[in-house]
Amino acid sequence: MYGLVNKAIEQMVCINHGKSTWEQIKAEAGVDATGFISNEPYPDDVTYRLVAAASKTLQAPAEDILKAFGEHWVLHTALESYGPMMRATGNNLRDFLIRLPHLHTRVELIYPELKPPQFACHEVGESELNLHYWTTRPPGLEPFVEGLVHGLGKMFDTPVRVELLQQRDENNDYSVFHVTWAEPA
Ligand code: HEM
Prior knowledge:
The chain is α+β, with helices and mostly antiparallel strands. It is built from 7 helices and 4 strands; from the N terminus they run H-H-H-H-H-H-E-E-H-E-E. The chain has helices at about 5-15, 20-30, 45-60, 60-80, 85-90, 95-110, 140-155; strands at about 120, 130-135, 160-165, 175-180. It has a 4-stranded antiparallel β-sheet, covered by helices on one side. The chain starts with a helix and ends with a strand. Protoporphyrin IX containing FE binds near residues 41, 82, 103 and 111. Protoporphyrin IX containing FE (HEM) binds near residues 2, 117, 137 and 145.
């Protein structure tokens, strides 16, 4: 994944646990980069190793690290560095999710070697929908998506619930989340 992703993990860890914890995590992951370059692609393995090492060092399940990272990604990385693109995607959670399938098409203009996730919305109601998620990457990213959607809920002051209905596995080539939300707070 592009260095931007690893950089965001670094930022999240440094904000919440300090720089020395980040150095410990990098050592545990066997990653010796002194700084990631945002627009350079790194092997996916680097990102997965950093998450596993953060899980071990912080004594928290990898799923919890990925959920926290999803929220951090929306509220810090995306909003701070790509605010106009985020705001142009939707004015409320429902519209944003409906347009989410097109977001990474725009991101690809900035990062041409992107291997983007694919999304589709089904059963769309006033306060619920089913979010379908395809990825070309190794298993385990569903909690990241959950965290991202929770981050979007916070972005729009909208309490949101995310439930995994179908997990990508040997029988299904995509995962499905049931997303429900309340009126904005
Ligand atoms: C403007 C905001 C955003 C930017 C710039 C951005 C950019 C990126 C980048 C660079 C990657 C790494 C992929 C690669 O290097 O091949 C990525 C992955 C990913 N993004 Fe975004 N993204 C944004 C918003 C979002 C949002 C709002 C979601 C919400 C669901 C999302 C879902 C994901 C997921 C799930 C992945 C993991 C890759 C995979 O599943 O295969 N992104 N994104």
